Amino acid sequence: MIPDAQPDECLRPAMDALAAADPDIAEAYARCGLPPQRGSEPGFAGLMRMIAGQQVSVQSARAIVARLEERVDPLTAEQFLKASDADLKAVGLSRPKMRYGRILAGEIAAGALDIQGLEALDDAEAVAALTRVKGIGQWTAEIYLLFALKRPDVWPVGDLALCVAAQHLKKLEARPGPKAMLALGEAWRPHRSAAARFLWHLYRHPGVALGRGVKKTA
Fold first, then answer.
1. Of 30, 106, 145, 176, which one is least surrounded by beta carbons within 10 A?
2. Is the pLDDT assigned to residue 15 strictly greater than 70?
3. What angle do CA 89, 91, 92 make, to 5 degrees?
4. CA–CA separation, 54 vs 93, rounded Å?
5. What is the count of structural domains for the chain?
6. Minimal CA–CA distance to 89: which of 54, 58, 52?
7. Confidence at residue 55, expressed as pLDDT on a 0 to 100 scale
C-alpha cells in the first residue's frame, strides 16, 4: 500500500462499491489503498483558493494561498475587495486572477451569487450558478462541488490528470478525451467523485499504482 497522508475513511464505502463493480479498480485499490484526506471549506475562501491555485504547481499554489491568507485576513469577499493591486501582486496572484477574484468577491458581496445557497441546488444548477461568474469555468465549478460541497457523483472529464490516470488504469492506447471519459464514468455512477479522487491518487504514484502495459482501443 502506498504511504501517503492519512487515508480518507469516508471514501471506503464508495471505493468498496467501485472495486466490486470494476476489476481494474479492484486491482489498483488493493495495491494503493484509499486516497488521502483532502477537502476545502465552502464559501468565498475555498473558491478563491481554487482560483489562486489554477495553472501553477502544487507547491506554488500552496505558497500563494498561504501568503494570500496572511495578507487578506480573514479571507472573505469583503476583505478581498479592500486589498490593493500591490497587496494581491505581492502574494503572487496574476492580474487575471486578481480580476477574477474581485469579480467573484463583488458578486458575493452584492448578493448576486448566493454562495451558501449552492448547497441547496442540484449539481447542474450549482455548476450553472458558478460558471455564470466570469473567471469560473466548468472545471473550477466541478472541483468546488467535489471538494467543498462533498457531492458524491461529480466527474470532471476535462481534468488532464484524470484522463492520464484513466488511460493507465484501463490500459488504453490513447489518452481518453472528454467524450470517452464520460463513457468510462457511466460505469462508476453514483460514485464518480470517489473514482475521481482515486484516479488522482493513482496519478501521483505512477511507478507503483499504474499498469505499464497498454492495449488497443476498439
1. 30
2. yes
3. 65
4. 10
5. 2
6. 52
7. 83
